[in-house]
Amino acid sequence: MSGLSGELMEHEFNLMKAQQDKSDEKIAYGVEYKNNYQHIIDIREKSLRIGKKKRCQLESEKVTEDAIKLNSTISTNIDKGQPCDINIGTFIDETDGSTVLTDLSIIREEIKIFKNGSGFESKNNVGCASCNDNGTYSVSLDSNDTDVEGILTVVVNKRGALPICHQFNVVSYYECSGCGNKDITVDRNMFDGQCAECTDISLNDPGFNSQAIFRNKQLIRDGK
């Protein structure tokens, strides 16, 4: 009898252990399922964030492209690699299309530049735009903003205003061997490195021309 009781007790113990093992497996499975489910949620949320960011980027690029196509003007020349101030605008209210806006707060991050067709980026100079009281705004650029020769496109998409786009010619100004001023007409390998005005003077002044020739050789030697 005692042997039978011992077998029953062992059987009940094994049964209880099996039930406990199943319970532990369910708990482990539940934890694993929860972790996997949370992982899926995290991936989905990350995907949504990336999608939203990409959508905003595409919308921004679309607005920028439209601004370039519809509202771009080539304003003036800029000396390559030199800091300068430019004027952009006029800023017009996007609702009525006529009201001039003179109280906008335009920060650095809202002023995008394109260096000769490269991807757009915020201007490097940390200054904000300041209003000139007529709907145009002054923007400061530094040497990093003007370091690429070609077309420099400046775009501002300010909430409440129509997009503004201006294009500038970034060119290398060379020192004139005659007068010493930087001028866009100077070519170091033509007319002895003289600007248009000094070239006219040299035609009638051999002494002036000789000095210009000597100075141009110095500038070529110095890589200027």
- Tell me the helix content: 40-55%
- Count of folded domains: 3
End-to-end separation in angstroms reads: 114 Å
| The CATH C-level class name of the largest domain | Mainly Beta
Estimated share of beta-strand residues: 15-25%
Number of helices: 3
CATH architecture of the largest domain: Sandwich
Give the class from helix and strand content and strand pairing.
alpha+beta
pLDDT under 50 segments (min length 5)?
A: 54-64, 67-71
Spatially, the strands of the biggest sheet line up as 1-8-7-3-4
Integer average pLDDT: 78
The topology string of helices and strands comes to HEEEEEEEEEEHH
Largest sheet: 5 strands, mixed
CATH topology of the largest domain: Immunoglobulin-like
Beta strand count: 10
**Global shape:** elongated
- Specify Rg, calculated over alpha carbons: 36 Å
Structure, explained:
By secondary structure, the protein is an alpha+beta fold. It folds into three domains: 1-70; 71-171, Immunoglobulin-like; 174-221, no CATH class. The chain is 42% helix and 21% strand. It is built from three helices and ten strands, in the order H-E-E-E-E-E-E-E-E-E-E-H-H. The chain has helices spanning 2-70, 196-204, 206-221, and strands spanning 72-79, 84-88, 111-115, 121-122, 130-131, 137-141, 150-156, 164-171, 174-175, 182-183. Strands 1-8-7-3-4 form a five-stranded mixed β-sheet. It has a three-stranded antiparallel β-sheet with strand order 2-6-5, with no helix packed on it. Strand 3 and strand 4 form a beta hairpin. Helix 2 packs across helix 3 (206-221). The termini are far apart. The model is unreliable at 54-64 and 67-71 (pLDDT under 50).
